[in-house]
Amino acid sequence: MFKDLDPILHSQLRLATMSLLISVKEAEFTFIKEQTNATAGNLSVQIQKLKDAGYIEVIKEFKDNYPNTTCKITPKGVRAFEDYVKSLQAYLHITKK
Amino acid sequence: MEEEKLLTGEESLQLITGMINKAKNSFHDSGTSMLLWGSCVSVAAMVTYLQLEFNFSIGFNIWLIILFAVIPQVFITMRENRRRKVVGYDGYAINVVWSTYAFTICGLIIYESIVPSAFQHIIQNEGWQLTKHYLDQSRPDEVLEPFTLSITSIYILIYAFPTIIMGRIRNYRPMITGAIITYVLFVASCFTTTKYDMIFSCIAAIACWLIPGLILRKKYLKQKANV
């Protein structure tokens, strides 16, 4: 039933991360971790998958002498997210009928 | 949150809505900067009024507190940037507007300090001066150094305002470059007469809008042809 949905986005944590990033210009790793209640290890893996798909950009830098990771959605990510929502709406529309 | 849990359609939509709402509710402005500038400018203006109204002097220029307010503002901005874990689109746009506003105020301070002396220099080169002549000749003529408005310079400064805001928000380099060129032209125009200010005004309009507009138009026509 979900064969048309993007498998990269159709997972709970990756979808939550993308939903956060679509609403903001950029967000730190710690912010995403707090909002999704995910563990650091799990979130790192999912962020890497989104990065490999070209959906997000990951910027690693130092902030107050500590390493800091910032994520921002890419234009490809925005398009993928929009397509995902459209497919989802179409699916829900069909099932309601 | 689980790693690979497959979601139903309803669950996915709920998750998206929930996360978007969480992101929206995560922006909080402390209001410290507004309190700082609101109090500084209102106090300076009121003290100036009282000095003029009741003809007394406090012994120093009260507007210097504005310069001193820049120091805590720098620390406030640095602290807020350190604490900020997320930058929203509206927050970024607001920052761009305020930083451009601050830049414009600096431009006006430059204008205020350059224009009177530049005007005196120009008229001296032309071989004349403004004098106060007493008709009854009770006192000798006095040389006047009034603040002469160079309105075209202010127009040029204002041209850059929306240009740099739009350029930075849309990350459109031609407009950012155009605005920077316009700021340089603004400073140059403070030293010149209206005749030359018009040339600077012409270059500013070309740099701010004509060239970026032509580039945008070219892209638009290309996209239209591809559809």
UniProtKB/TrEMBL annotation, chain A:
One Pfam family cited in the UniProt record for this chain: HTH_34
InterPro entries documented for this protein: WH-like_DNA-bd_sf, WH_DNA-bd_dom, WH_DNA-bd_sf
Entry superkingdom: Bacteria
Chain ranges of the Winged helix DNA-binding domain: 13-92
SUPFAM superfamilies xref list: Winged helix' DNA-binding domain (SSF46785)
Protein name from the UniProt record: Transcriptional regulator
Organism placement in taxonomy: Bacteria, Pseudomonadati, Bacteroidota, Chitinophagia, Chitinophagales
From TrEMBL, chain B:
Top-level taxon of origin: Bacteria
Lineage summary: Bacteria, Pseudomonadati, Bacteroidota, Chitinophagia, Chitinophagales
Name of the protein this chain belongs to: Uncharacterized protein
UniProt key word Membrane: yes
Keyword annotations: Membrane, Transmembrane, Transmembrane helix
Entry's transmembrane regions: 34-52, 58-77, 89-111, 147-167, 174-192, 198-216
Organism listed in the record: Danxiaibacter flavus
